[in-house]
Write a structure and sequence with these properties.
- With about 450 residues, the chain is mostly helical.
- It folds into two domains: about 1-225, Arp2/3 complex 21 kDa subunit ARPC3; about 250-450, Hypothetical protein af1432 (Orthogonal Bundle).
- The chain has helices at about 5-25, 35-50, 65-90, 95-120, 125-130, 135-165, 170-180, 185-200, 210-250, 255-270, 275-285, 290-295, 305-320, 330-335, 360-375, 385-390, 400-410, 440-450.
- Helix 6 packs across helix 8 (about 185-200), helix 11 (about 275-285) crosses helix 15 (about 360-375) and helix 16 (about 385-390) runs antiparallel to helix 17 (about 400-410).
- The chain is elongated and about 85 Å long.
- Keywords: Membrane, Transmembrane, Transmembrane helix.
- It comes from Ornithinimicrobium pratense.
- This is HD domain-containing protein.
Length: about 450
């Protein structure tokens, strides 16, 4: 499936839901322009205020609040129309695919939520406006709560399919992480949406209700924005560290990002979700940051013993560099132990088997795969050749479960990623020694240790 087909499918769902909703409730409760116009304007405002930093492809839009309120006020067809208009008017969007996807998805979410609401006996338009007391809860509040849950599920599943098409992630894994990421905060949206309906209809404030809704709307946005701001600061901090690492050794350009992408995909296969997945991504991005502190040798005159000695310090050095950054505390074990070996002959602690933190075992596989597939011309392996090489190292250097996850990724339609080696700057120093992430260097270190003398790999 391509992105264009996904957009067409969502647009079809939105049109069908809107048309069905029109036939279902439209005959008795036609949508009024005086209802749709303020809802559309508020929807556009919600999109303008949305925050994008709560995760990949995951934007939090207060337009969802307006979308929820549109269901009882304007029916499924009105909700689909408000969703469509809200994103179509997003003048800042420059990627036409993202622009159309967001518009089609939000219209589909509104339409599907509206049909759910009506199917549960929810009152629409004038019927909702005439309700009072318990009837308001049973015929508006409860159906709206369930409809909003369906809207949220539709939203994260559509985003999951989009992420699968763009990044090769698994739909359900992405959807689950998205649900965990937004948490229970979305419930505040449905409460505000219900308040909007009560003020508009039973309280007879109609369009003036928008004025009273803006206050809670901005409070909800402020609360979400604080979390988003913290996440942006964290990401900028990590990006600064990665830039410093790549500045110190231009030959490593792009390595951290490639390892993080593959580690994230491997983590999804073996069930690393939520905060653990976020810690894994941070650890994968920063796993070599200790090289900045440990790289004190001169490439022209270093011998093997000095090289291996220097290498053995960079994992611990990385943890020291990042000490004091609380948001990276859970990433520290993955950074400290990403060069341990399953057979216990790695560094820095000589941990073995499942004593090695799971994130470190995942990064070790992603690290080795990247080293093999972006090696210098002549030594570089294809993705399939690298997979065969790493399969042979399952149970000695690498965790067999993670290697199996790599095989599972290879069997998916998109297959394994084929990294594009980043060209270092023309004035960058040539690499004098092999990439320390190459499996042969891991073997050299395992044999170099005094306790390994006489032991075969």
């Amino acid at each position: 499936m391509s992105v264009v087909i996904l957009i067409f499918a969502l647009a079809t769902i939105a049109f069908a839901a809107g048309w069905w909703g029109w036939l279902w409730v439209g005959a008795t409760d036609q949508v009024e322009v005086r209802v749709l116009v303020p809802l559309g304007l508020l929807g556009i405002l919600g999109v303008v205020l949305r925050e994008r930093a709560l995760g990949p492809h995951l934007g939090v839009s207060l337009g969802m609040v307006v979308l929820a309120a549109a269901i009882p006020l304007a029916g499924p067809h009105g909700a689909a129309l408000v969703g469509l208009v809200s994103f179509i008017a997003d003048y800042r969007q420059r990627d036409w695919r993202a622009w159309l996807f967001n518009a089609a998805m939000t219209a589909a979410v509104g339409g599907v939520g509206g049909l759910t609401y009506v199917a549960l006996g929810g009152a629409v338009g004038a019927q909702a406006a005439d309700l009072r007391g318990p009837a308001l809860l049973t015929q508006v509040g409860v159906p709206l709560l369930v409809a909003y849950a369906v809207m949220t599920l539709t939203n994260v599943l559509a985003l999951g399919v989009m992420s699968a098409l763009m990044r090769g992630t698994r739909v359900l894994d992405f959807a689950w992480r998205a649900l965990q990421g937004v948490g229970w905060g979305y419930l505040t949206h449905v409460v505000i949406g219900f308040l909007f309906v009560v003020l508009w209809g039973p309280a007879r404030l109609e369009t003036v209700a928008a004025v009273f809704v803006l206050g809670p709307l901005f409070i909800a946005h402020w609360a979400i924005g604080r979390e988003a701001l913290a996440r942006r600061e964290h990401q900028e901090t990590v990006a600064t560290f990665v830039a410093a690492l790549e500045q110190s050794d231009a030959s490593t350009a792009g390595h951290s990002a490639r390892v993080a992408t593959l580690a994230e995909a491997l983590g999804g296969v073996i069930g690393i979700h939520g905060k653990a997945a976020e810690a894994l991504r941070y650890a994968a991005l920063l796993h070599d940051i200790g090289l900045v502190a440990a790289r004190s040798w001169e490439p022209d005159d270093i011998d093997e013993a000095s090289y291996l000695t220097a290498l053995s310090t960079h994992a611990d050095a990385g943890v020291e560099v990042l000490r004091g950054l609380d948001f990276l505390a859970e990433a520290a074990p993955g950074i400290a132990h990403h060069h341990e070996r399953w057979d216990g002959r790695g560094y820095p602690a000589g941990l073995a088997g499942e004593d090695i933190p799971q994130a470190a075992r995942v990064i070790a596989v992603a690290d080795a795969f990247d080293a093999l597939t972006v090696a210098p011309e002549g030594a570089r392996l294809t993705a399939q050749e690298a997979l065969v090489e790493l399969e042979g190292r399952a149970g000695t250097q690498l965790d067999p479960v993670v290697v199996e996850a790599l095989c599972a990724l290879a069997n998916r339609p998109r297959g394994l990623p084929v990294p594009e080696p980043t060209q270092p700057a023309p004035d960058a120093p040539a690499r004098a020694l092999p990439d320390h992430d190459h499996p042969l260097i891991s073997d050299a270190f395992a044999q170099w240790q005094p306790e390994s003398i006489g032991r075969p790999l």
